[in-house]
Amino acid sequence: MFPTVLRAVSRRPGRRGRRILAALAVLLGLATAAALLQTAGPTPSAASGGSLTVATWNMCGVRQWGCAGTGSRQAKKAQVELLVHAGGAQVVFLQEACAADVEAVRAELGDRWHTAFHSYAWGDRSGRVSTVRCAEPDQGAAGLAILSAFPLSAVGTVPAQQPSVGLRRGILCASLTARAVRLCTAHLSPAGSDRAHPRWELRDDQLKALVTAVPQRRTVYGGDLNVRPPGSGNPSTWVWPPGPYTVHRECDQASPTARSGRATHRSGHKLDYLFTGFPRTRCQVYDTSASDHSALLVEVRTA
Hints:
Elements: E1 7-10, H1 14-29, H2 33-39, E2 51-58, H3 73-85, E3 91-98, H4 99-109, E4 114-119, E5 121-123, E6 129-131, E7 142-148, E8 153-157, E9 166-168, E10 170-176, E11 181-187, H5 203-212, E12 219-224, E13 249-250, E14 272-276, E15 280-287, E16 295-301
Parallel strand pairs: 2-3, 11-12
Antiparallel strand pairs: 1-15, 2-16, 3-7, 4-7, 5-6, 5-9, 8-10, 10-11, 12-14, 13-14, 15-16
Helix pairs in contact: 3-4
């Protein structure tokens, strides 16, 4: 059975939003939806040279991290494909992904798609650092990834403080040379991540490193930042550096002074973000039903 189709709520539906909803309705009625997804391409407006559509999703694909009940590998891969085919995403940031599953999605999308991958690592008390593996032997390493319909260049990780003992996530960046756009996706360390120093806060350093790695305008960056938006109700507001919400606007930012957004985690909090220096034309939150996180998608004008 094909997995539940993405359910989207849009800030600015307009004609494009109605076309997306119509496409989803068609997919719901097609008995051959899986075969269709293998051959369909991005929607015409998403493929136009003057716009770029970027999505971010924490797949919860590392089953040993409390993800065993969030859907099968096939369901998760199919949801990524739906972000492309129904959502029009030309770039997808993924967190808690498995290397083999990312490559399988890329193969399904076709030869013109490209990937970059950064493995999570575990630091133990002896100083040894090892790559984190996904639960099933054929899944490979666990990590974060960038899927792109355009060739990627200048791919690399951004140095940032990580736990001395515990899980080391990371920041992965790449450029779309053809579009002159810098992309960065991050998975930040929640409070208490350093088992040797549980009171240490790492997100301030990591957020600063992320923001410093991108240009002022021609960028889209974000991911699972493991922190709520800045505001009086968030005691961790101080970890946010200048730049986000000001120089760079967030996908779901309703006004220049707004610092909120729709929840993206089943806890009821917003933890997933997409910031950009480009004008935004669409922001959607997708309930994928295959993760403890919703997916977030932004469309921007690049010309």
